[in-house]
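Exercise: predict the fold of this chain.
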Amino acid sequence: MVKPVQLFQFGRTILCLCPCCGDIVRLTDLTLHYEGETPRTWLDEYQHRVGLFEKRLASFKSKEYGIRETARKKGRSLAARKVRKVIKETFEGCSYHPKDIKAILYPVDCVVFSGMAMKDRLDKIVMLSNKSKLTGYRKLRQSIKKTIERGDYDWQLARVTSAGEIDLE
């Protein structure tokens, strides 16, 4: 039995004369042309479907940025509403912009940088916490309040290097 590779190698030894241009070519290099339509095979269908998929993918990629940007804006708007709702439920009477509020959770629930989101400058910094039934929390939060009232705090700028070290300025 002849293996496919042997058949191909044998085909390279057969030389033909091209009727159109008169060149001598190998049998394996021929491109056959004939009239009529070729019956479709599974490979033709597969290639057709791959082509359709690639067109749809290209169409999606051209629209993807816009779709993502629209979803991002919608998500941010929805998140802001949800944050406002939670803050109003948690801290009644609180009217701070949601982007100004940063959750810390311990030792205080949130720090508010009032004015940061809308004015790009701070009006004030506020610490928000719910009343706690735990004595340890209450004592710690009272200690923070007294420290602020006494002015026993300092501003330090810490920069983290690419090596993970902290440099205080």
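Check your answer against the key: Residues 42-90 form the longest helix (49 residues).
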